UniProtKB/TrEMBL annotation:
NCBIfam families from the UniProt entry: PRK13238.1, tyr_phenol_ly
Protein name: Tyrosine phenol-lyase
InterPro entries to which the protein is assigned, alphabetical: ArAA_b-elim_lyase/Thr_aldolase (IPR001597), Beta-eliminating_lyase (IPR011166), PyrdxlP-dep_Trfase (IPR015424), PyrdxlP-dep_Trfase_major (IPR015421), PyrdxlP-dep_Trfase_small (IPR015422), Tyr_phenol_ly (IPR013441)
Modified residues (N6-(pyridoxal phosphate)lysine): K269
Co-factor(s): pyridoxal 5'-phosphate
Subunit structure: Homotetramer.
Species per Swiss-Prot/TrEMBL record: Propioniciclava soli
């Protein structure tokens, strides 16, 4: 086991620190066990339904929870709130072209707005969309537009204990078999996510991306990136892939995106803002269609549901996200938490991914059936223990099969401890690790949950539960 001093991305033995200092603070509130018992019962044992005032350390998501820099806040004052042709839009468009390399940009209120535009524009009923594992909103929009989703991620991604460098890779044989089976003309595009959120923030390699491009190009199939954490992915390529050890993140990102035709983007992740997103494409026809549709669902094509100031903050955030020192500390903080948990033998997905630690709830609760919601149970337990909020990524998130109505039974039954960018300190990570350990020590007492209310769409957000036994 390596010591805490050598962990993270350091080659030498010196400690590292965040490449920023704190200028504004937001006080945290602690609660008593009794208060937490009442709060989680009120929330139907679903951490999404907890008011944030009852949460001490909030690791629900890294989405929109970013701390902005002084530059970004200064940029907010430069908001040009014109209905049409805001200067901030042009700055954002320039920045996206420069860092991601795509020709056209359609702004949206967040990532799912872009997914809606892309899916509605390119998918017809009877189509098939392959992806390197699914993401909840992405797959939802694909299915709603009439497509059948196919998971083409490498098998290693489904094994939480396997330590491999690029568990987000596309399995080329699976993709080739699907093309054979359904025909290229029924595959409007391949959806490639970098990193793969649902697999534990696992990266995809440049070589794999290049190979996917070669294969799909032969069949005339487009590739759309889910680029939400493509800059985090770039750091993994730099660290793990031969030939990129001294390439800048910006150059890696540009090359990576060059193997795709466009992307959907959540500005709430890599771009270091609290809201926003975009669809980017090199395809003139898609651009035309999406720019038309965006006015129905989001807003005019030069704001897409964002305020001018938000677009400005996002443009600045993109330039900050590719700074190496920042990205090393962002991923380094996640690794620090993983190292602490490792010391106590706590089961979590290997290797540590980019944006969080994914606890293996089956490893905590081997005595619970998947239909007793082990991950949902663990997330509730962690809140009760210490006021730490996490998220279920297992059978509840996987939802039901659109055709048969049966529950999907994902091989991964996880609780995600997602680390917001630039928000918490290493001391907070110590507290989180100790809270997880307390749940692990008490694991045999867990009895599981029963679902008492199930919403029709994306049920994990609003489902309610009751303790069993
Ligand atoms: C967050 C996320 C999305 C959706 O973005 P929103 O901004 O939340 O709508 C899509 N894909 C992945 C991988 C994400 O993490």
């Amino acid at each position: 086991m390596s010591s805490l001093h050598t962990m993270g991305q350091q080659q030498d033995r010196r400690s590292w620190a965040e490449p920023y200092k704190i200028k504004v603070v937001e006080p945290l509130r602690t609660t008593t066990r009794e208060e937490r018992e009442a709060a989680i019962a009120d929330a139907g044992y679903n951490t999404f339904l907890l008011p944030s005032k009852d949460v001490y350390i909030d690791l629900l998501t890294d989405s929109g929870t970013n701390a902005m820099s002084d530059r970004q806040w200064a940029g907010m004052m430069l908001g040009d709130e014109a209905y049409a042709g805001s200067g901030n839009y042009y700055r954002l468009e320039d920045t996206i072209r420069r860092f991601y390399g795509y020709r056209h940009v359609v702004p949206t209120h967040q990532g799912r707005g872009a997914e809606n535009l892309l899916s509605q524009s390119l998918i017809s009923p009877g189509h098939h969309v392959p992806g390197n594992m699914y993401f909840t909103t992405t797959r939802f929009h694909q299915e709603k537009a009439g497509a059948t989703f196919h998971d083409i991620i490498v098998d290693e991604a489904h094994d939480p204990t396997l330590d491999a460098p690029f568990k987000g890779n596309v399995d080329l044989a699976k993709l080739a078999a699907l093309i054979d089976e359904v025909g290229a003309e029924r595959i409007p595009y391949v959806c490639v996510a970098a990193t793969v959120n649902m697999a534990g923030g696992q990266p995809i390699s440049m070589a794999n991306m290049r190979a996917v491009r070669e294969l799909t190009q032969r069949h005339g199939i487009a590739i759309y990136l889910d680029a939400t954490r493509a800059v985090e992915n770039a750091l993994f390529i730099r660290e793990r892939e031969e030939g990129y050890g001294s390439t800048s993140l910006a150059d890696i990102l540009l090359e990576f995106c060059s193997y795709s035709d466009g992307c959907t983007m959540s500005g709430k992740k890599d771009p270091l803002t609290n809201i926003g997103g975009w669809l980017a494409t090199n395809d003139e026809a898609l651009f035309e269609e999406a720019r038309n549709l965006v006015v129905v669902y989001e807003g005019l094509h030069t704001y897409g549901g964002m305020a001018g100031r938000d677009m400005e903050a996002m443009a600045i955030g993109i330039t900050e996200s590719v700074e190496l020192a920042y990205m090393k500390s962002r991923v380094g903080q996640v690794r620090y938490l993983g190292e602490l948990l490792d010391q106590w033998g706590i089961p979590f997905v290997r290797p540590v991914g980019g944006h969080g630690i994914f606890l293996d709830a089956r490893g905590f609760y081997p005595h619970l059936d998947q239909e007793q919601f082990p991950a949902q149970t663990l997330a509730a337990q962690l809140y009760l223990e210490a006021g730490v909020r996490a998220m279920e990524r297992g059978i509840v998130s996987a939802g039901r099969d659109a055709a048969t109505g049966e529950n999907h039974h994902p091989s991964l039954e996880l609780v995600r401890l997602t680390i917001p960018r630039r928000v918490y300190t290493q001391a907070h990570m110590d507290v989180v690790a100790e809270s997880v350990k307390a749940c692990y020590d008490d694991r045999e007492a867990a009895r599981g949950l029963r679902m008492t209310y199930e919403p029709k769409y994306l049920r994990f957000f609003q489902a309610r539960f009751e303790p069993l036994g």
